[in-house]
Design a protein that fits this description.
The strands form three sheets. Strands 3-2-1-4-5-6 form a six-stranded parallel sheet, sandwiched between helices. The protein has a five-stranded mixed sheet with strand order 8-9-7-10-11. A two-stranded antiparallel ribbon has the order 12-13. With 266 residues, the chain is an alpha/beta fold. The radius of gyration is 18 Å and the shape is globular. 36% of the residues lie in helices and 26% in strands. The longest helix is centred in the last third of the chain and has 17 residues.
């Protein structure tokens, strides 16, 4: 498989680290010009020396990868993923929360239709989306999600307006609202709520509570589902990804599994 990464930070590096060598025949990485040297050094640390590093979306498209994987945030979904899909390149979107913008979701779906490409949305740090998706077929489904992370994971987000993250001594609610509001306000912290919304009742049908907890040593995701045929509660606790406190290590593993599944289907 010729794999392309859109962005190469902690998540992409962790994905590449766990992918079997036999799964890749070629690698292309799109990064900002200022990050090219750092990316080359990081790839060398991972034992990858033959990757093509490009600084423009058109160069990535021209390389014709079998699969592209976005790991660069909401802006990259709008600025790059639309182009890869339109060019007929199947693309995995890690920043699922970007689809909380209905106009962007429409553009992505239209680009995928034009290019006859797959827009692939991984489950990320949570599980149970198969249950939720099945229950959603049976009628009205309600979902309530609670996400708990250490205070450091909320630095640089609107949570800083809710409290002094460096001074709290007990769990503090930093956000309450819909999945749409959470995904747009916390683009690096709330992709899991977008995954729940897309699998089930939509962005306005998931109630979200986000919590900063000084006692937390891992990222905790808990959600409850109520449906006409079944109720369910799922709770997952995952260690933070090395180098990125906002993401769980299971996010990288989920992406790697999604890549291997896409390879098998392709």
């Amino acid at each position: 498989m010729h794999l392309a990464f859109i962005g190469f930070g902690a998540i992409a590096a962790a994905v590449l680290d766990v992918l079997p060598t036999s799964a890749l025949s070629r690698l292309t990485v799109l990064v900002r010009p200022s990050a090219e040297q750092r990316t080359e050094e990081r790839l060398a640390e991972l034992g990858v020396r033959a990757a093509g590093i490009v600084a423009r979306p058109d160069a990535l498209v021209a390389s014709r990868p079998d699969l592209a994987v976005e790991c660069a945030g909401h802006a990259a979904v709008e600025g790059v993923v639309v182009e890869t899909l339109r060019a007929g390149i199947d693309t995995v979107v890690a920043s699922v929360g970007a689809l909380a913008d209905p106009a962007l979701q429409t553009r992505l779906e239209a680009a995928a239709a034009t290019g006859e490409a797959r827009l692939i949305l991984p489950p990320g740090a949570i599980g149970g989306l198969d249950v939720l998706g099945a229950l959603a077929l049976g009628g009205d489904v309600r979902v309530r999600y609670r996400g708990t992370k250490p205070p450091t994971a909320w630095v640089g987000t609107p949570a800083e307006e809710a409290c002094d993250l460096s001074a709290i001594s007990e769990p503090k609610v930093v956000f309450e609202g819909s999945a749409r509001e959470a995904a747009l306000a916390f683009p690096k912290n709330a992709n899991v709520v977008a995954a729940l919304a897309l699998a089930g009742p939509g962005f306005d049908g998931v109630d979200v509570t986000l919590i900063a907890d000084p006692g937390a040593v891992a990222n905790r995701h808990a959600f409850e589902i109520w449906g006409p045929t079944c109720n369910a509660r799922i709770e997952i606790e995952g260690n933070a990804l090395a180098g990125n406190a906002r993401s769980s290590g299971t996010t990288a593993l989920s992406l790697a599994r999604t890549i291997l599944d896409a390879k098998a289907c392709g």
